[in-house]
Write a structure and sequence with these properties.
The protein is an alpha/beta fold. The protein has 10 helices and 8 strands. It has a single domain (about 5-215), classed as Alpha-Beta Barrel (TIM Barrel). The chain starts with a strand and ends in a 6-residue tail after the last helix. The structure holds ribulose-5-phosphate and magnesium ion.
Length: about 220
């Protein structure tokens, strides 16, 4: 399956996020309400985007850490398809979210955001608990401190794929980074700033799609 293109709306206001999505909504596969936008506007962006895009996958990137089922009821109730949980959350928190996801609809799901010091034992436990999606993340702050994608990242991504996870990659991705991951069955590429802040966001989103087609095949989606 060809990787999906997810755009992260880490805008600091709903009006800016709507201005971004107006330019690219027809090109991308998954709309993410970014953590930064959630902090600014709560769940209202999810409600607005669901009203505008009834058939799109909408991700609420809340990076939840506790009170899993309560947070999940709010995210899915607002119209989210997927939501995120931070990797250091406990298994009952993740399970609480996943149970609400599956009660709400079979397309609903939870993505585990991988930051910091998670272990392979944690990954085994996520699998055993029924979690299937992970987001391999280079943090904004690590990127700002000069961290680039490297061999260690690729080895971990390969191992997560081999374990059977749907692996999404993100963190300051540019079009030139896409080819680094060409040997893996990446589930989604998430790009935020390199699409939203481009001179022409629509062209930037289309160029990401063309680059994905180049390595995973133009006809192989879904
Ligand atoms: C940061 C995030 C961002 O949404 C993700 O990194 C994508 O944004 P960008 O491409 O601008 O880094 O979750 O914590
Ligand atoms: Mg995000």
């Amino acid at each position: 399956m060809k990787p999906k293109l997810q755009v992260a709306l880490d805008n600091t206001s709903l009006s800016q996020a709507l201005e971004s999505i107006r330019q690219i909504g027809h090109v991308i596969d998954v709309i993410e309400v970014g953590t930064i936008l959630h902090v600014a506007e709560g769940l209202e962006p999810v409600r607005c985007l669901r009203a505008l895009y009834p058939d799109k996958i909408i991700l609420a990137d809340i990076k939840g850490a506790d009170a899993g089922s309560l947070l999940a009821k709010q995210c899915y109730g607002a119209g989210a398809t997927w939501m995120t949980v931070i990797c250091c959350a406990e298994i009952p928190t993740m399970k609480g979210m996943l149970d609400v996801a599956k009660e709400t609809g079979k397309d609903r799901d939870v993505q585990i955001e991988l930051y910091g010091d998670w272990t392979w034992e944690h990954a085994e436990n996520w699998k055993k608990a029924g979690l299937s999606q992970v987001v391999y993340h280079r943090s904004r702050d690590a990127q700002a401190a000069g961290k680039n994608w490297g061999e260690e990242d690729l080895n971990k991504i390969g191992k997560l794929c081999d374990m059977g996870f749907k692996v999404t990659v993100t963190g300051g991705l540019t079009i030139d980074d896409i080819k680094l991951f060409k040997d893996f069955p990446i589930y989604c590429f998430i790009a935020g700033r390199s699409i939203r802040n481009a001179d022409n966001p629509e062209m930037a989103a289309k160029s990401f799609k063309t680059e994905i087609d180049k390595y995973w095949g133009a006809d192989s989606n879904e």
